[in-house]
Each structure stands twice: as structure tokens, then as C-alpha cells.
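I can't quite decide. Please look over this sequence plus C-alpha cells:

:::
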Amino acid sequence: MADMPDDTNDKDINPDEPLFSDEELDAAMSDFEREFAQSDDAAQSDLSEQIKQNDQNGQIDGETNGDHAETPAAGDIDFDSIDIPDDASEIDPSVGFEDELAGLIGNKAKRAALITRIASAELLAAFCQLSDISADCVGSNQGAVAVLRNLDGDGPEAAAKDITTVVSGMSVILGVNRADKLEVTMYAGGKPGPTLAPPILFNSTPRFVEDLMLGIVTAAQLKEQGLEVVDSGRFDHASAMQVIARHTRPGKGGSVHGASIE
């Protein structure tokens, strides 16, 4: 992605002065909290309806198919399909043998992402920076996605806890692929909530979310396809706060509506 162009609306900002007062920041974050609460209520309602519909469909399928009603849970490992390389030369050199082995046995997640209700990749990247999260953020009108880089141990879970703690009122859905098994969990207020079946998540998110979680596509490839992708490492604390200012102050790039620029 090309370097972010200068915002002509920010030319009058004095770098020696605060970007905005504590009162303005409190008011802006209050706006975010209200928008997050409204969008989260709508999202949870949609998910509940989707779960109910899936349960009904499952019951109908069970009555129709008899003994075939019981199917393996989504994400279960098909051990017969695992191809164990004869030597380390067959392993992707960009990953490395130890990382590949850790991902295979589940000590390290293969992929992890935070799915949000924020449309702007830039704003999500700014929130990630303030939460000390390293990620590539992909923009979408259905909700931006942060593709996490720290996949060791409980790194993905820690990221979900951190961002929902730092940004009060924000909730996210954490998707983690460990040992070829997908786990999907909602987080709010720094705490894990209900888990979801992967098909429910994929039915309510952009197609690229499923492709990312299954390793079919990478954030870099999505960027090549023309999607907005912003590296959280592109910002420091000051520039992240500038991004938040543009998304919250009238006349600085747009007003807040579902945490996106109108």
C-alpha cells in the first residue's frame, strides 16, 4: 500500500500541542461506546437468529437422514489427510520446521484474526496499536478484520482481551486455527463470551474471512486484490491518536457512524 497521503484538514495541527483535550477524548470514546453497543446488540441478535435457524435445519436434516444425522463437528481433524513430509526440505522455508511442527500439534496457532464491527481498517489498526497488538487490518463494510501476527501460546486470546479492555464498549470475535481446528469465541470487556460454530461466523462475514482462516489467502494477497490493508505497526501512539481524532472530530475526515467515515 502506498504511504498514507497527508490529510489536508490536519495542516493546522501544532505538533507541540495536544491533538485534543481530555474532554474531547472522553466525548469521542463515549460516542464509540454507544455505537459499539448498538452494533453489538444488532450483531448478537443476528447471530442468535442464525444459531436458531441452524439448529432447526439440523433437526430437520436429522429427521430426514436417520443414521446419517450425526456428522463430525466443524473443524475436526482428518488425520488421514495430513501429509507428513519426508524431510524438512518439503516444509515452507518462510515458516520453518519448528513453527510448522508447533502449528501441527497446536502449540502455536496457524492463523488467528479479530473480526470487528468497525468498517475502517485504518481505525482498527490504530486501536490495535494502542492495545499493543501487531496485526494487518483488512477493511470491509461488514466489519474490518485484524490478522494477528503473534500466534504463540495464548497470544491470540490475549489480543482479544487487550483490545476489548483498552477500547471500552468494544466487542470482537476471535477466530483461531490451531492444529487445523477452528475455534470462534466472542470477547467483550476483556473477557471471553460464548463460542460459535465456524459456519455461523462465515455466513455473517465477508468471504475473505473464511479464506484467511483456512489459509487460502493472505493479507498481502488481499492487498494485491485491492482491499484496504493497514499494518498496525505503521502507527506510533501519537499517529494512532491522530487517526482516532479524524474519525471522531467533525471536519477532520468524517463523523462517527458505526466507527466509520461517512
User: Anything to note?
Assistant: Residues 1-11, 59-75, 81-91, 251-262 have pLDDT under 50 and may be disordered. DSSP finds eight helices and seven strands in the chain. Helices lie at 22-65, 97-105, 121-130, 155-166, 198-203, 207-213, 219-224, 237-248. The CA atoms of residues 222 and 229 lie 8 Å apart.
